[in-house]
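Example record for the data management plan.
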Amino acid sequence: MTQPTILINLQRCTGCWTCSLACKVGNQLADDEWWQHVRTLGSGEGIDRPAGVWPNLRMSWIPIHTEDCTLCGMRTEEGLDPYCVHNCPNNAMTYGDLDDAQSEVAVKLEELRGRGYRVFKLPEWERGRTEIVYASKG
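Corresponding structural encoding:
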């Protein structure tokens, strides 16, 4: 695999933290160690709180894979998806080789672009994995 990539469709993410918990349990991380977490895009610190004023409230989430994330190398070498991708209940994440035009991740990325999604990566100052690509309508 020349360009392993996780594509995250932010329109499907509900902020459930299943990806983060799957990563923590699957990689046997300590209680205070997180290689992946979910940030709420709304207002307030440390609590899920919507932004806006009633009745125009809005809230969304963005899974953040830290530099510590290994993309579950042991699993992916065996042809399995990373824990976060495998366990996402909303199918918001897709894993594969972005250099292979026939891979699921490349096909899904082109499909989302064709539907007008904006595709982006986190800025360097976020210190996230560069292999993570996000797609959003907004």
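Summary line stored alongside the record: The mean pLDDT is 93.
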